[in-house]
Amino acid sequence: LRELRMQFLNHLRETAAPIVLNGPDVGGLPHALNISFPGCMADALMMNLDLAGVACSTGSACSSGSLLPSPVLTAMGKAGDVLNSAMRFSLSPYLGPEEIADAARRISLAVTRMRAENED
Question: How far apart are CA 68 and CA 91, in angstroms?
Fold first, then answer.
């Protein structure tokens, strides 16, 4: 899972920059990432990703269903665009490198499209 996590994160850093990893690069949970996509509102991005076949959340598992900004990220001092564009992704040991690359590609396409629309 740690290898898949790094593959996922590196792909997003290369193709969806700028992104902000809300947590440590090394260590942390191997199966979960919280990533902000400045320039995208989390609720709109979540809907776009759902349509693209990518499951994700805008909050922590314990606040599932809430549309409020994450209290954990707020306590970490995150604010503005980083706080309002945060998404949680969970990885499974049943996923392989191909599925991780495909999910990252779908996310990058959605993020790029949304940022372009927001510039207009």
Answer: 23
Q: Catalytic annotation on 40?
A: no
> In the sheet where 32-36 sits, what is the strand order?
20-21, 32-36, 86-90
Per-residue pLDDT of the chain (120 residues; tens, 9 = 90+): 999 999 999 999 999 999 999 999 888 899 999 999 999 999 999 999 999 999 998 865 555 555 666 767 766 767 678 888 899 999 999 999 999 999 999 999 999 999 999 887
Q: Which of 62, 77, 80, 120 is catalytic?
A: 62
Tell me if 19 sits within 8 A of 37, measured CB to CB: yes
Q: Which two tokens stand for residue 30?
A: 């191997």
